Amino acid sequence: MNRRGALLFAAMCVIWGVPYLMIRVAVRELAPVTLVFGRTAIGALLLTPVAAYRGDLRPLLRRWAPLLAYTAVEVAIPWVLLARAETKLTSSLTGLLIAAVPLVGALVVTLTGERERLGGRSWLGLLIGIAGVAAIVGLDVGQVNALALVEVAFVAVGYAVGPIIFSRSLGDVPALGVVAASLAISALAYAPFAVTHWPAATPSAHVLESVVGLAVVCTALAFLVFFALIAEVGPVRATVITYVNPAVAAVLGVAVLGEHISAGMVIGFALVLVGCVLATGRGPDAVAEP
Predict the structure, then answer these.
(1) Which own/partner contact pairs does 108-116 have at CB distance under 8 Å and 24+ positions apart?
(2) Can you tell me the distance from the alpha carbon of 256 to that of 272, in angstroms, rounded to the nearest whole number?
(3) Phi-psi map region of 131: left, alpha, beta (phi>0 left; psi -120 to 50 alpha)
């Protein structure tokens, strides 16, 4: 991974480690569909005018099918499932479970014949990272809602498939247009549900701050950085940020929300870091077919 890729990787590790905390705070007073509507609507309002001015939306008219597929698996479905899951799970545990994304992505890439192939070193890194998550969950999971775990599993699949769809079918169109259109489509889809689930009282300042932070930093800015990361290191290596995101989520959960930290988290964190280094490193085993 070159210097630009490393900087983009580090930025995404932080930016997408924060949302779990913000979502956990927001769903205390907002329904998941209302939260997703607020997040996507604000993000769309920020990015759509800029994308339209630059002419970045026009090329998407010929790519409406992959755009809708990408929007569904990367934004619309996962975000509401993630918010639903965090009504029953801690932000730390939710973030840690999402670390399965790189392994799912690697399996999809291998089974579908994607150009980018993973060698032995990368596979070892992915497996060590998953072992780290297993250590955390195995030692700390306790009594956890089964439906919430299934919802997070679907989120992980969506997050793994989304970058692959983008890389294969949308990689040659402006990233800003893809981001803006995805957010706008999702906001329109959830608008009717947000109206029926609108809170009776004005949410607290912390909740409003969380929604705005999710929309501006963790959505609008984050997607632009993430697409740049995909272009730099490929869709599978890009999703390896989910090995560090859980550590950020766990630290914030403990520091801000007072969530429990344990030996399992410490051991798992160490394994996650080792797996991340191995999975993102470029060695003789990492092969990209022409």
Answers:
(1) 108/160, 108/161, 108/164, 109/164, 109/235, 109/236, 112/164, 114/164, 114/168, 114/235, 114/236, 115/288, 115/289, 115/290, 116/234, 116/235, 116/236, 116/237, 116/288, 116/289
(2) 22
(3) alpha
- The per-residue pLDDT for 284 is 33
Cβ–Cβ under 8 Å, residues 237 and 101: no
C-alpha dihedral (27, 31, 16, 38), degrees to nearest 10: -120
How many structural domains comprise the chain? 1
The more confident residue out of 271 and 71 is 71
Rg (CA), the chain: 18
**pLDDT-based confidence at residue 14 (cuts at 50, 70, 90):** confident
Q: Can you name the residues that pair with 116 across neighbouring β-strands?
A: 288
- What is the model's pLDDT at position 75? 94
Per-residue b or e along 122-148, where b marks 16 or more CB atoms closer than 10 Å to that residue's CB: bbbbbbbbbbbbbbbbeebeeebeeeb
| Nearest alpha carbon to residue 250 among 21, 15, 25 | 21
Asked whether residue 136 carries a pLDDT value surpassing 60, the answer given is yes
Is 249 buried (19+), middle (13-18) or exposed (0-12) by CB count in 10 A?
A: buried
For residues 51-73, give the mean pLDDT: 94
Domain span including residue 7: 3-288
3-state secondary structure of 287: strand
